[in-house]
C-alpha cells in the first residue's frame, strides 16, 4: 500500500465541511506507478501519476495508454475519453495523468487510472526514437544507446534488480556484523601486482605549479581492489567489507571483463581456515540471491522468459544446493581426464581459463564450485603459503558459478613476517610495502577475505551473456560513451 505524498498543486473541489459551494484547494496525491498498482480503488479521490508512455491505443469511444515510471515492471493502464487525445501523445513521450483509480477488468492489474486530465510534459518523436513500440531489440542494438536504454523493459528491470542486489549485499554484511569501510578510489598501490592499472594525473598541474613531480608526489592509480585497505582496517575490526568501483586496464573485449566494475570485498580477522572464508562467500551468494527471488520475482520471471529461459529454476537450484569443493590439483586432473578439446591445454601451474571453469561447473552438476589451493606462483604476494612443499600451493580460493565461471577470488593472507618479507624482497616490493609489513608487526592476526565481481554476480543470477548489459555505463577498451 502506498503512503500518498500530497502535492502542493491542488484541484478545486466542493467543500464538504462547510456544506457550501465555496471552492477549496484539495491536494492531489502523487503516486508512483508501483504505488498506484498496489493501491485500492479511489473512485472519489483524484491521484496523479507521472511517467513515460509505453503504448497508445485510440478507439472511437476510449483512449488507452500504458504509462511506466521505472518503479515496476508493469505499467499502469490509463483509460481516458477520446477528447483527451493529444497529437503529442506517442510512445516515449512523458506525461502527467490525473484521475481516479477504478477497478480494472484487465487480468494483469486490479486497478486502472480513469483519467480526467492527460498532460504531455515532453514530446518524443517516435520516428527518431531508437526503440520501437512492441519490438524486442537485441542487446547489441540497445547497447548503442546508453543515454536512452533505461527506457527499455529489460534494462529498467536490470536496474531494479541491481538496486535490490546492492541493498541485499549491504543487508547481509550489516546483519552479520561487518563494518562498511569506504576504501579509496585513488591509491598508490597495485594490490594484485598484475600491472593492469589506470594512472591518475591532474591535468594542467605541471603548468600551474611549475614542477613536474605530479599531484601526489608519488605515482597514483585507480584502485584494482580495496583489499589492502580492508586489511589495514582488519587490524582494528574483526569483520569489514567494502563495495565500490574497481578499475582494471585489461585489454579484454570478453563477455565478463570491464575496465570499470563494482567489487564486493570482505576481510575477516582471527581465522586460520579457508573454510571460514568460503562459508561467508556461500552465505553472501545465497542470502543475496534469496532476497532477489523474494523482492524482484516479476523481474526474474521476465529474464527467465525473454533473456535466459529456465533461469528461475536455475536460481532456485543455486540457493538450495550445497556448493562443491575441489583442489586446484583435482580440477586439473578432471580437465585432463575429460575428452573435451580445450583451446588452452590444461596443465598444473597454468591459470584456469573460462572454458575450464565452465567445464568444471558443468562436471559438478551445474552448482557453484570452490577451487582451492592454487599454485603459489599464480597468486599475488599476499596469499598464504600452504607449506605443502617448497612454495607449492597457496591458501587461495576461487568460486566458479554456472554461466560465468569465476565469480569470487579470495585467500588467507600471509601473516607470518618472515615469509612475507622474503616474498616481497623476491618481488622487489619490500620498500613499497613497508607499511604492510608494519601491520604484521603490531598485533597481527591471521586473517583472510575475498572479492566478488558484482556485475558477474548479476550475469549469473539473471542469465545475461554479456557483462556490458548489467552495468549502467560500461567502460571497456576503445569505449567510454558518455
Ligand atoms: O580475483 P580478483 O582479482 O581478486 C581480488 O582483486 C582480490 N584482491 C579480492 C579480495 O580478496 N579482496 O577479483 C575478484 C573478482 C573476480 O572473481 C571477478 O568476479 C571480478 O572480481 N573481476 C572482474 N569483473 C569484471 N571485470 C573485470 N575486469 C574483473 N576482474 C575481476
Care to describe what's here?
The protein is of the alpha+beta class. The protein folds into two domains: 94 residues, Nucleic acid-binding proteins (OB fold (Dihydrolipoamide Acetyltransferase, E2P)), CATH 2.40.50.140; 321 residues, BirA Bifunctional Protein, domain 2 (2-Layer Sandwich). It contains 13 helices and 17 strands. An eight-stranded mixed sheet has the order 8-11-12-17-16-15-14-13, with helices on both faces. Strands 3-4-5-7-6 form a five-stranded mixed beta barrel. Strands 9-10 form a two-stranded antiparallel sheet. A hairpin with a 7-residue loop joins strand 6 and strand 7. The longest helix is centred in the middle third of the chain and has 23 residues. It binds 4-amino-1,4-dioxobutan-2-aminium adenosine-5'-monophosphate. 4-amino-1,4-dioxobutan-2-aminium adenosine-5'-monophosphate binds next to strand 12, strand 16, strand 17 and helix 13.
- State the CATH architecture of the largest domain: 2-Layer Sandwich
The number of distinct helices, counting runs of at least 4 residues, comes to 13
Helix content: 25-40%
CATH fold description of the largest domain? BirA Bifunctional Protein, domain 2
Global mean pLDDT: 92
Count of discrete structural domains: 2
Biggest β-sheet: strands ordered side by side in the sheet: 8-11-12-17-16-15-14-13
Number of strands: 17
- Which CATH class of the largest domain? Alpha Beta
- Assign the structural class, choosing from mainly alpha, mainly beta, alpha/beta, alpha+beta, or little secondary structure: alpha+beta
Amino acid at each position: 500500500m502506498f503512503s500518498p505524498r500530497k502535492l502542493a498543486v491542488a484541484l478545486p473541489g466542493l467543500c464538504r465541511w462547510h456544506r457550501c459551494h465555496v471552492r477549496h484547494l484539495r491536494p492531489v496525491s502523487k503516486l508512483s506507478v508501483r504505488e498506484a498498482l498496489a493501491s485500492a480503488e479511489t473512485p472519489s479521490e483524484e491521484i496523479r501519476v507521472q511517467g513515460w508512455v509505453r503504448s497508445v491505443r485510440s478507439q472511437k469511444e476510449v483512449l488507452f495508454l500504458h504509462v511506466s515510471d521505472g518503479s515496476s515492471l508493469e505499467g499502469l493502464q490509463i483509460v481516458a475519453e477520446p477528447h483527451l487525445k493529444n497529437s503529442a501523445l506517442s510512445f516515449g513521450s512523458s506525461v502527467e495523468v490525473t484521475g481516479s483509480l477504478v477497478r480494472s477488468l484487465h487480468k494483469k492489474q486490479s486497478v486502472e487510472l480513469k483519467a480526467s486530465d492527460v498532460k504531455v510534459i515532453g514530446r518524443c518523436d517516435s520516428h527518431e526514437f531508437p526503440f520501437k513500440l512492441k519490438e524486442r531489440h537485441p542487446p547489441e542494438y540497445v547497447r548503442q544507446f546508453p543515454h536512452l536504454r533505461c527506457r527499455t523493459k529489460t534494462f529498467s528491470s536490470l536496474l531494479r534488480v541491481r538496486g535490490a542486489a546492492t541493498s541485499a549485499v549491504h543487508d547481509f554484511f550489516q546483519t552479520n556484523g561487518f563494518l562498511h569501510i569506504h576504501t579509496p578510489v585513488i591509491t598508490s598501490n597495485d594490490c594484485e601486482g598484475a600491472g593492469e592499472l589506470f594512472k591518475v594525473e591532474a591535468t594542467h598541474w605541471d603548468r600551474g605549479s611549475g614542477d613536474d613531480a605530479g599531484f601526489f608526489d608519488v605515482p597514483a592509480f585507480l584502485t584494482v581492489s580495496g583489499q589492502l585497505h580492508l586489511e589495514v582496517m582488519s587490524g582494528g575490526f574483526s569483520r569489514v567489507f567494502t563495495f565500490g568501483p574497481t578499475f582494471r586496464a585489461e585489454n579484454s573485449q570478453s563477455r565478463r571483463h570491464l575496465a570499470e566494475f563494482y567489487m564486493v570485498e570482505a576481510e575477516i580477522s582471527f581465522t586460520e581456515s579457508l573454510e571460514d572464508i568460503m562459508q561467508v562467500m556461500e552465505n553472501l551468494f545465497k542470502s543475496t540471491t534469496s532476497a532477489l527471488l523474494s523482492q524482484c520475482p516479476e523481474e526474474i520471471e521476465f529474464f527467465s522468459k525473454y533473456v535466459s529461459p529456465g533461469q528461475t529454476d536455475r536460481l532456485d537450484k543455486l540457493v538450495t544446493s550445497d556448493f562443491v569443493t575441489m583442489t586446484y590439483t583435482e580440477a586439473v586432473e578432471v580437465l585432463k581426464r575429460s575428452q573435451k578439446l580445450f583451446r588452452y591445454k590444461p596443465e598444473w601451474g597454468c591459470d584456469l581459463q573460462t572454458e575450464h571453469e565452465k567445464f568444471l561447473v558443468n562436471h559438478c552438476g551445474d552448482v557453484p564450485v570452490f577451487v582451492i589451493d592454487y599454485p603459489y606462483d599464480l597468486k599475488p604476494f599476499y596469499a598464504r603459503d600452504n607449506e605443502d612443499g617448497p612454495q607449492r600451493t597457496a591458501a587461495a580460493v576461487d568460486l566458479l558459478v554456472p554461466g560465468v565461471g569465476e565469480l569470487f577470488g579470495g585467500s588467507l593472507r600471509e601473516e607470518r613476517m618472515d615469509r612475507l618479507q622474503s616474498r616481497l624482497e623476491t618481488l622487489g616490493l619490500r620498500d613499497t610495502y613497508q607499511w604492510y609489513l608494519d601491520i604484521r608487526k603490531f598485533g597481527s592476526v591471521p586473517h583472510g577475505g575475498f572479492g566478488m565481481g558484482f556485475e558477474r554476480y548479476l550475469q549469473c543470477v539473471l542469465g545475461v551473456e554479456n557483462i556490458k548489459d548489467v552495468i549502467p555505463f560500461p567502460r571497456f577498451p576503445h569505449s567510454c560513451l558518455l
